[in-house]
């Protein structure tokens, strides 16, 4: 039930985001005097609507987005009634059209930044110094956090009835103890400790540690488990020893900020997110074969793109596991990605309309400088084959990601 609630809640958040996106277009267009005839949430048959002034507002039956109808978006539009010609969008200065067309993405950015600022003040943002790679984790000091049990097989799952208790807990080790040696072999990092423990036969072993600055020693009855080699999680498993502890990083994972400090922290985090988003978009073509493999029975790559369906399923997992921080961080990431993607200079995206507007403006300026007549507006009809190609590619890719998210979804929590 909690999972279903999370799925519905995240889908609702996405619907609200998209509705606000269209509201951004509508409000800026109205502010400049452009004529907006319709603003609807959803697609398909109309469930409910009302008219206020010259605009019809309403809700449609398929809650998969929304739309805003601005009269005369292109010179070829035939929706301009007699007397409304001066209010057609294409007749307005290019800077006004740019603001209207970018208002949707700006709304997504505003949602993401607002959520990040609130998180920075309330619970904190990820610490940039927190280890993020396996190499960095293995280099951390061997400070431990007790695990409730030892999972004997090579599996990432919660403890279950019948799992052996943590040997370290039975030996009276505590969270925060720093291991210094095992059977007389000194260790200074988490990676060294794992190497030494795994190389020690199961059974009793002397463990030296430091607690609150004082050195101490205890005997730990190491458990026998199956694990792959370090650095190769997909390698062949073998019988090794385990102490029943997890790494306790020396740096905090989150840093809380005051209202003023949160502004700078939000800006820094957003900058990093922009770089990651750019890299992710560059890798999309490379991930298509991995998506097809996931659909046809292969293992789902955690780094493959996801659809709104996949994002909603992950939202459900976060709620079911009481991981609300991940839920809202996913909301932030998705809004930021949609905002960036929508500004790509491709029709029918908003970025395509913006690119054409500025192309027209620059071309007119150049022709005026060389004494030639203004070539006028771009004929959108001639661009329709390119537009249809973009729609087709986007539709196929969307179908591919949705199918993968249904038949072989990404999961972040063990089941």
Automatic annotation (TrEMBL):
Residues of the Peptidase M50 domain: 10-364
GO molecular function: metalloendopeptidase activity
InterPro entries cross-referenced by the UniProt entry: PDZ_6, PDZ_sf, Pept_M50_Zn, Peptidase_M50
Location of the PDZ domain: 162-207
Co-factor(s): Zn(2+)
Topology in the lipid bilayer: Multi-pass membrane protein
Keywords in alphabetical order: Hydrolase, Membrane, Metalloprotease, Protease, Transmembrane, Transmembrane helix, Zinc
GO cellular component, one term: membrane
One Pfam family named in its UniProt record: PDZ_6
Highest rank taxon of the organism: Bacteria
Cell compartment(s), UniProt: Membrane
Biological processes, Gene Ontology terms: proteolysis
Residue stretches spanning the membrane: 99-125, 386-407
Predominant localisation class: membrane
Protein family: Belongs to the peptidase M50B family.
PANTHER family with a match to the protein in the record: MEMBRANE METALLOPROTEASE ARASP2, CHLOROPLASTIC-RELATED, REGULATOR OF SIGMA-E PROTEASE RSEP
The protein, known as: Site-2 protease family protein
Species: Micromonospora sp. CCTCC AA 2012012
């Amino acid at each position: 039930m909690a999972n279903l609630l999370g799925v519905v809640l995240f889908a609702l958040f996405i619907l609200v985001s998209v509705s606000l996106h269209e509201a951004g277009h509508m409000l800026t267009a109205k502010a400049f005097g452009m004529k907006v005839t319709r603003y609807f949430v959803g697609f398909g048959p109309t469930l409910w609507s009302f008219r206020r002034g010259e605009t019809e507002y309403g809700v449609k039956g398929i809650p998969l987005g929304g739309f805003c109808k601005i009269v005369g978006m292109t010179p070829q539009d035939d929706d301009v009634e007699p007397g409304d010609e001066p209010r057609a969008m294409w007749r307005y200065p290019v800077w006004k059209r740019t603001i209207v067309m970018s208002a949707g993405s700006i709304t997504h950015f505003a949602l993401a930044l607002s959520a990040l600022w609130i998180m920075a003040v309330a619970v904190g943002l990820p610490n940039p110094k927190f280890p993020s790679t396996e190499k960095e984790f293995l280099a951390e000091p061997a400070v431990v956090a007790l695990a409730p049990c030892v999972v004997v097989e090579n599996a990432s799952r919660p403890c279950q009835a019948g799992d052996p208790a943590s040997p370290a807990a039975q030996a009276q080790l505590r969270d925060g103890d720093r291991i210094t040696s095992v059977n007389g072999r000194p260790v200074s990092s988490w990676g060294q400790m794992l190497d030494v423990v795994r190389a020690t036969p199961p059974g009793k072993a002397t463990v030296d540690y430091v607690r609150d600055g004082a050195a101490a020693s205890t005997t730990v009855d190491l458990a026998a488990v199956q694990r792959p080699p370090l650095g190769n999680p997909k390698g062949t498993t073998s019988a090794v020893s385990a102490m029943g502890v997890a790494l306790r990083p020396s740096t905090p994972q989150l840093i809380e900020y005051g209202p003023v400090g949160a502004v700078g922290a939000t800006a820094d985090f957003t900058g990093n997110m922009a770089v990651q988003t750019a890299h992710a978009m560059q890798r999309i073509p490379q991930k298509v074969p991995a998506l097809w493999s996931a659909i046809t029975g292969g293992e789902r790559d955690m780094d493959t793109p996801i659809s709104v369906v996949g994002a909603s399923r992950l939202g459900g997992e976060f709620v079911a596991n009481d991981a609300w921080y991940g839920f809202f961080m996913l909301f932030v990431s998705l809004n930021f990605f949609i905002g960036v993607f929508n500004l790509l200079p491709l029709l029918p995206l908003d970025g395509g309309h913006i690119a054409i507007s500025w192309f027209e403006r620059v071309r007119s300026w150049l022709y005026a400088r060389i004494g030639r007549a203004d070539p006028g507006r771009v004929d959108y009809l001639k661009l329709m084959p390119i537009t249809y190609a973009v729609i087709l590619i986007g539709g196929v890719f969307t179908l591919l990601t949705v199918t993968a998210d249904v038949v072989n979804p990404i999961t972040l929590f063990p089941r």
